[in-house]
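Recall the central idea of this unit: under ordinary conditions, the amino acid sequence of a chain determines the structure it adopts. In this exercise we apply that idea directly, starting from the sequence alone.
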Amino acid sequence: MKIITFIMPRTGEDPIGGFKVVYEYANRLAIDGYKVNIIYGITSRPVSNIIIRYGYYFCRFFRWVKYKFFKNYGPQRWFQTHKNVNHILTYRLNSRSIPHTTFIFATSWSTAYWVDRYNKLPATHKFYFIQSFEDWHGDKEAVIETWKMPLNKIVIAPWLKEIANELGESATLIENGFDHNKFHLTIPIEKKNKYSVTMLWHDHPLKACNIGLKALELVKEKYPQFKAVFFGVPKRPQTLPKWIEYYQTPSPEQHLNIYNSSAIFLGPSSKEGFCLTPPEAMLCGCAIVCTNIGGYTVVAKDKQTALLAEVGDYKQLANNIISLIENDELRFRIANNGLNLIQEYTWENAYKKLSSILKKIED
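Accordingly, the structure predicted from this sequence is:
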C-alpha cells in the first residue's frame, strides 16, 4: 500500500482553513487506496540558537504531555477523517518520528525544513504544499529559503505561483475545491434580506476584523435595520456591539443557515492564501465585498463577482455594502456571477490534479 504523510506545524483541534484543505485531500487519498499519516509536531519550528532552542523544547514538553494524555490533538470535534487517515502526535520532528512513507508533504514553512532534511526519500517524493506566503510567522528570508528548497512545490493560488516564478522556482498550481453539498442555496438570491451581512471573526491581526467592524458600523448608521451575523472559533468578543449576532464554531447546519440568511459577505483581511469563506458564501448566493488581495481575487473579480476595496479602507468597504443594498440589480448580478464562477471549483477537480502528479511519479 502506498503511504502519504503530511507534516503539520501544530495540532488540529481547532478549525483552521489550511488544515481543512489538508484533511480534504487526506480523505480523498484514503478513499483512493492510500494510507495517510498526518503528523503533528509539538516542536515544529527550527530554532538555531541552542539556548532558545532548548528553552522552546522545555516549554513545549508540557504541551506534548497534555495532548498525549487527553488525545485531543486531531480534528475530531470539527472534521471527520477517513478510517485510513492516521493522526500521529510527536514531540520532536525528525526521521525517527516519521513512519515509513512513499510520499511526504510539508504544509508550512516550519515543516519544510524537516521534510527537506528527511533523507529516507528522494527529492522527487518530497512535496511542499504552500497555502500562503507565511512571513507573519517567521523571518521573510527564512520563508524564502524554504521556497528554494529542492521540494516539489504545489501552490493554491495564482499570486503564490507568481512569487515562485519571481524567485526562479517552479510550482504547480492546484486551486482549492469547495464542498458543494455542504454549501448551497437554500434561499433564492432575490429573496434574501438585503440589509443582512455575514463575516468571519478571527483574532489574528491579518484578518483585519476591526476594519470590517468599522465598515459595518458606518452602514448601521445609515440603515438602522441593518444586521450582521458573525461566526468564528473564539468566544464572542466582549467589545462586539450587541446588534451583531455571533456564533462560536457553528454546526454545519448553522453555518449553512448563516450564509443563506445573509445577502452580503464581508471579507476585510489584509492577507490570505486562498480564503475559504468567500467561495463558501458564493455557493450560498451571497454578494461579496472584500479587500483587493491575492487570496480573495482568485474568485473575487471586481465589479463582476465582488466589489473590492484596498486593504484598510473601511469607508470604501462600507460604500460597497451600501451600493449593494441600494442597487438590487447590482447585488443580484454580483451574487449570480459568483455562484456561477464557483461551480468549477470542486474537490473532485482539485484532487484529480494532485492524484495525477503522484501517479506520474509512481509510474
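The radius of gyration is 21 Å.
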